[in-house]
């Protein structure tokens, strides 16, 4: 390859001077690329942050404030920039919120690293010092945190609304925050109190209405119509629900088959047989007392035919068809029933029970709601409404963040102040710590501390305040021992942020700091980009 | 006087000096590419794929870098091969071996320029290598008898290996993980039994070692989520329908009820198969292929835990660790070996649910779960950990241990230098050159750490003039330090492999005096 043939035989190895120009260049360009990614999302930080409109390659338009989503859709090519995108994804996986924060912090640390490198400090020295600083930072944060009880619903709601306040849907935070808290708390398993599986919370999106109409449903919601063909029932009280994985349609074998029809009477007989076959199945179903059927989508053959729908309607059985296979687990868990894969296994004990299954009109669309489920599993469904697809999507993402925030609190029960307070406090304490360190380390930790000020700075800047005045004022207040002083964006001044109910989970802050540092260290250690197969 | 053409049109031929130059240039370029990754303060490389997706890998592992390069130089390919062999044989030292070979060639180039015949150089190198190996053999420490000390040796080796990798900050944690895992193997080098699972999220410190086996799959619907004293049947069989696989086979019937009968018969066949499987007296069934809804329900009814679509690697390992065999027919229950384990349960790591088999038959088996910020971190962590595991398992077999940090190179260089003084003739130049190449390794380590290599290496050489000195480069403080005190150790086997394969590779390249490039095969125009 080019790289090989271009290299000239070098002069003797014993020369002490080594030419590092190319390596410096690569590092520089990596850092610059990563920083430009960070700058792209910087303005979306905080409650007064702006949104980005992304138009994807296939013409789809997304409006969002969520860092992870923005970066995900940006399709960056530069490898170092890609690492920042990955970073945001990891934060999304680890904490769910703070996806913008983590990238902004990484960008700021990289900026400081540039100046450190230009002073001739060795990258590995910087990297090691950053690691030390971040461990210390996590300690400081943990010391600042306030413990929380899960029974303290107020605090949970506060932190969920802090997360929601920076989103498009912020005006609905009073509605969405309690909703997020309730849904997470309802899926916490008392046996494993630290674990929350967000897959137990299903978010159903339905166009129409406003975000105000978003609701928590204790039960199931299907974004489908009940089958109307032949006038089947659309409302069923005291429902006995069966989840079936077989098809109510004429038989079909796996081996190829053909029916040979030789005369007219035979044709008549075949039609009759088909009817009898289906009728037989439906009778068996009816015999168990089942009155609501959820039918899994089938690719091999029709799940239901018009004929079977007709008979089902006559038998007063409500039908919801085309249920995805992936959803079956969630549904059976919620209904506390078992899926039925064969008509022979159709037994009453496999059915689920609910007080009411009904089709509800929402605007011009219809959904099916199942409520009053007996022995309901630990699942919850949230029905998100919105006036257009963009709002709904953004509402869903915001809700996801809020759910994650609550989940973080469930697994690590500590709260910390928001509004830039922890960052400025970190910056102050690390700054003080750097003075007792020796050599290069102290210098690097000092820079790390300065980099953290980017968060309050950006918060203020995005809110249209004077960032320098705010940051210096904050430093001053923290120096006087008000460790919870932060930026109150709404009032445009500095207040005790804990009293303003702006709180966030400790996990979000700690993982943002440690992930950002880890990523920066990785970028620093790279000295070459090699093209490979 | 025209010479007849011997070779084909596009083939080229390079001779003598030119051929030698081409190999030197290629080999040295490769060396320069990877040498910055050497040592605890070595740097990483981004490997950017030019293929689809432009995947990005960040790595410090020499073998990984070299493996992925586009190379058009035959000599460079030789170096890549020795790095691969080193990776397969001992797992670590993949960069060192390339760097040493490169340095040997760099020295040889100068000797050739000074009109010394390549064969003379080769025989000098051979003598030097033999002498260097003996020097190492005299200094090895073997703590085979003392279990306690041996364990601390292993720990040190693991830490030394990991200190040049991404895991360096948490090296104690990972060294402990690796040592524990290897100790479980009880001397076998079968690294298959150690499974590494990567899950994004959390930090590297959250990684842990778990006894038993973890399968990244879901348990079927309505089946028990926890089984004690499990009997496991591992299978690779189709759980949809056994089809007649003759093309064009079809059934002709004349009524709908017959179709229904056939369908019923198919179902019945499936049911029989499931019954046969259950008749093995199992309560856990793991299949490599899909399990359809119908058999899944049958299993659920029988209270058997069925896991579908386990990947090939997964079931082979599972069969290995649970002591079972992969079955594909179920007619003879007595001939099928069934795996056992104490407990199967669903666990949650990060956001994902996985299935954990604990108390497995093969006691050595264990799983290391790696957590980390991103896929880059995880992949690199896996490679690093793999290196450490390889080295450790080799060390368990060959318990001889050396000090690290450039100490072995200095010891060898000193002995080789003495040999040079005793050897008459032109060979002594080559032997001297060998010693210079050895010293290049500590020099590069120092350079990579941004230290003054010339000064440090001179100090080291002076320190090594005394007998029984433990001096090496202490990269952290940037000075010469006592390697025994700092606890920096390396496996003898790795060092020996580095020395011998690097010498051999250099020798091979030196012998070349003509490179013939064959004409590329003509591609047909496919229109």
Automatic annotation (TrEMBL), chain A:
Gene3D superfamilies from the UniProt entry: GroEL, GroEL-like equatorial domain, TCP-1-like chaperonin intermediate domain
Classification via InterPro entries: Chap_CCT_delta (IPR012717), Chaperone_TCP-1 (IPR017998), Chaperonin_TCP-1_CS (IPR002194), Cpn60/GroEL/TCP-1 (IPR002423), GroEL-like_apical_dom_sf (IPR027409), GROEL-like_equatorial_sf (IPR027413), TCP-1-like_intermed_sf (IPR027410), TCP-1_chaperonin (IPR053374)
Compartment(s): Cytoplasm
Keyword vocabulary terms for this entry: ATP-binding, Chaperone, Cytoplasm, Nucleotide-binding
A Pfam family this chain is assigned to: Cpn60_TCP1
Region listing for Disordered, in residue ranges: 1-24
Keyword ATP-binding appears in the UniProt entry: yes
Start-end of Basic and acidic residues biased regions: 12-24
Keyword Transferase among record annotations: no
Known function: Molecular chaperone; assists the folding of proteins upon ATP hydrolysis. Known to play a role, in vitro, in the folding of actin and tubulin.
Family, as annotated: Belongs to the TCP-1 chaperonin family.
Protein name: T-complex protein 1 subunit delta
Organism encoding this protein: Hibiscus sabdariffa (roselle)
TrEMBL record, chain B:
Principal location: cytoplasm
Listed Pfam families: Cpn60_TCP1 (PF00118)
InterPro entries xref list: Chap_CCT_beta, Chaperone_TCP-1, Chaperonin_TCP-1_CS, Cpn60/GroEL/TCP-1, GroEL-like_apical_dom_sf, GROEL-like_equatorial_sf, TCP-1-like_intermed_sf, TCP-1_chaperonin
Compartments in which it is found: Cytoplasm
Domain of life: Eukaryota
UniProt-listed CDD domains: TCP1_beta (cd03336)
Gene3D superfamilies: GroEL (3.50.7.10), GroEL-like equatorial domain (1.10.560.10), TCP-1-like chaperonin intermediate domain (3.30.260.10)
Entry keyword set: ATP-binding, Chaperone, Cytoplasm, Nucleotide-binding
Similarity field: Belongs to the TCP-1 chaperonin family.
Function per UniProt: Molecular chaperone; assists the folding of proteins upon ATP hydrolysis. Known to play a role, in vitro, in the folding of actin and tubulin.
Family matches, as PANTHER family: CHAPERONIN
Name of protein: CCT-beta
């Amino acid at each position: 390859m080019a790289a090989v043939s271009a290299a000239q035989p070098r002069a003797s190895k014993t020369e002490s001077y080594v030419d590092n120009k190319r390596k410096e260049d690569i590092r520089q360009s990596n850092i610059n690329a990563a920083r430009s990614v960070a700058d792209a999302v910087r303005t979306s930080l905080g409650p007064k942050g702006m949104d980005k409109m992304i138009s994807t390659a296939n013409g789809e338009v997304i409006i969002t404030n969520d860092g992870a989503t923005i970066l995900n859709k940006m399709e960056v090519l530069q490898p170092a920039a890609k690492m920042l995108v990955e970073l945001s994804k990891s934060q999304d996986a680890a904490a769910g919120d703070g996806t913008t924060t983590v990238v902004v912090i990484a960008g700021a640390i990289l900026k400081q690293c540039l100046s450190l490198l230009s002073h001739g400090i060795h990258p590995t020295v910087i990297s090691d010092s950053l690691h030390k600083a971040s461990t210390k930072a996590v300690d400081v944060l943990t010391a600042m945190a306030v413990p929380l009880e899960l029974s303290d619903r107020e605090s949970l709601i506060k932190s969920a609304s802090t997360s929601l306040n920076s989103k498009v849907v912020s005006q609905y935070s009073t509605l969405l925050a309690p909703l997020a808290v309730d849904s997470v708390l309802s899926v916490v398993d008392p046996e494993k109190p630290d674990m929350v599986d967000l897959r137990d919370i299903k978010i159903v999106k339905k166009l129409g209405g406003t975000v105000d109409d978003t609701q928590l449903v204790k039960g199931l919601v299907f974004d489908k119509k009940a089958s109307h063909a032949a006038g089947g029932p659309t409302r069923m009280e005291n429902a006995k629900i069966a989840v079936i994985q077989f098809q109510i349609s004429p038989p079909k074998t796996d081996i190829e088959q053909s029916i040979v029809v030789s005369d007219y009477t035979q044709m008549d007989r075949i039609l009759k047989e088909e009817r009898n076959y289906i009728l037989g199945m439906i009778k068996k179903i009816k015999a168990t007392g089942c009155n609501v059927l959820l039918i899994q989508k089938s690719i091999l053959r029709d799940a239901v035919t018009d004929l079977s729908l007709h008979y089902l309607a006559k038998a007063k059985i409500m039908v919801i068809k085309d249920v995805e296979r992936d959803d079956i687990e969630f549904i059976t868990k919620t209904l506390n029933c078992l899926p039925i894969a064969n008509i022979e296994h159709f037994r009453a004990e496999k059915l689920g029970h609910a007080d009411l299954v009904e089709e509800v009109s929402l605007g011009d669309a219809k959904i099916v709601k199942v409520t009053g489920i007996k022995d309901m599993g630990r699942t919850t469904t949230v029905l998100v409404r919105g006036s257009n697809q963009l709002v709904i999507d953004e509402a869903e993402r915001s809700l996801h963040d809020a759910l994650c925030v609550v989940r973080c609190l469930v697994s690590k029960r500590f709260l910390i102040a928001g509004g830039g307070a922890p960052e400025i406090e970190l910056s102050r304490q690390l700054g003080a710590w750097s003075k007792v360190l020796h050599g290069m380390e102290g210098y690097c930790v000092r820079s790390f501390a300065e980099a953290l000020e980017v968060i309050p700075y950006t918060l203020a800047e995005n809110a249209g305040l004077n960032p320098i005045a705010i940051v210096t004022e904050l430093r001053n207040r923290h120096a006087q021992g008000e460790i919870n002083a932060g930026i109150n964006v709404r009032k445009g001044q500095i207040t005790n942020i804990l009293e303003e109910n702006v709180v966030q989970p400790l996990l979000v802050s700690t993982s943002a700091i440690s992930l950002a540092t880890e990523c920066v260290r990785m970028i620093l250690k790279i000295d070459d980009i090699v093209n490979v197969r | 006087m025209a010479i007849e053409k011997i070779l084909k049109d596009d083939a080229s031929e390079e001779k003598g000096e030119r051929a030698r130059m081409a190999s030197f240039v290629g080999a040295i370029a490769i060396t320069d590419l990877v040498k910055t990754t050497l040592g605890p303060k070595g740097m990483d490389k981004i490997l950017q794929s030019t293929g689809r997706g432009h995947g990005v890998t960040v790595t410090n592992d020499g073998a990984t870098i070299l493996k992925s390069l586009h190379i058009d130089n035959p000599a460079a390919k030789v170096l890549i091969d020795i790095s691969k062999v080193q990776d397969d044989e001992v797992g670590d030292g993949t960069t060192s071996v390339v760097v040493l070979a490169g340095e040997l060639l760099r020295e040889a180039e100068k000797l050739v320029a000074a009109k010394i015949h390549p064969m003379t150089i080769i025989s000098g190198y051979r003598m030097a290598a033999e002498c260097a190996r003996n020097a190492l053999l005299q200094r090895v420490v073997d703590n085979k008898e003392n279990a306690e000390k041996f364990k601390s040796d292993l720990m040190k080796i693991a830490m030394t290996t990991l200190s040049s990798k991404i895991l360096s900050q948490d090296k104690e944690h990972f060294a402990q993980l690796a040592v524990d895992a290897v100790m479980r193997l009880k001397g076998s080098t079968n690294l298959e039994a150690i499974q590494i699972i990567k899950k994004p999220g959390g930090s590297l410190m959250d990684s842990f070692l778990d006894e038993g086996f973890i399968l990244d799959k879901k348990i079927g619907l309505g089946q028990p989520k926890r089984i004690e004293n499990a009997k496991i049947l591992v299978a690779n069989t189709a759980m949809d329908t056994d089809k007649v696989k003759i093309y064009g086979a079809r059934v002709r019937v004349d009524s709908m009820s017959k179709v229904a009968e056939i369908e019923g018969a198919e179902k019945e066949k499936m049911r029989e198969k499931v019954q046969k499987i259950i008749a093995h007296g199992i309560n856990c069934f793991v299949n490599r292929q899909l399990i359809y809804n119908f058999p899944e329900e049958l299993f659920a009814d029988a209270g058997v835990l069925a896991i579908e679509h386990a990947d090939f690697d997964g079931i082979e390992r599972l069969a290995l660790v649970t002591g079972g065999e992969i079955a594909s027919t179920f007619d003879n229950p007595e001939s099928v070996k069934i795996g056992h384990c104490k407990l199967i349960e669903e666990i949650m790591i990060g956001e994902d649910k996985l299935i954990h088999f604990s108390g497995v038959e093969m006691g050595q088996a264990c799983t290391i779960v790696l957590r980390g910020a991103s896929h880059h971190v995880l992949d690199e962590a896996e490679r690093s950990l793999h290196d450490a595991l390889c080295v450790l398992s080799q060390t368990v077999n060959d318990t001889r241990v050396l000090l690290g940090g450039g100490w072995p190179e200095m010891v060898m260089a000193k002995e080789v230098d003495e040999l040079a003084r005793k050897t008459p003739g032109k060979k002594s130049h080559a032997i001297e050159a060998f010693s210079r190449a050895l010293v290049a390794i500590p020099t590069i380590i120092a350079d990579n750490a941004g230290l003054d290599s010339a000064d440090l290496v001179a100090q080291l050489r002076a320190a090594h003039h005394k007998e029984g000195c433990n001096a090496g480069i202490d990269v952290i403080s940037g000075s010469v330090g006592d390697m025994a005190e700092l606890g920096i150790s390396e496996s003898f086997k790795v060092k020996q492999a580095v020395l011998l394969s690097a010498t051999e590779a250099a020798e091979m390249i030196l012998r070349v005096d003509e490179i013939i490039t064959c004409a590329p095969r003509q591609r047909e125009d496919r229109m």
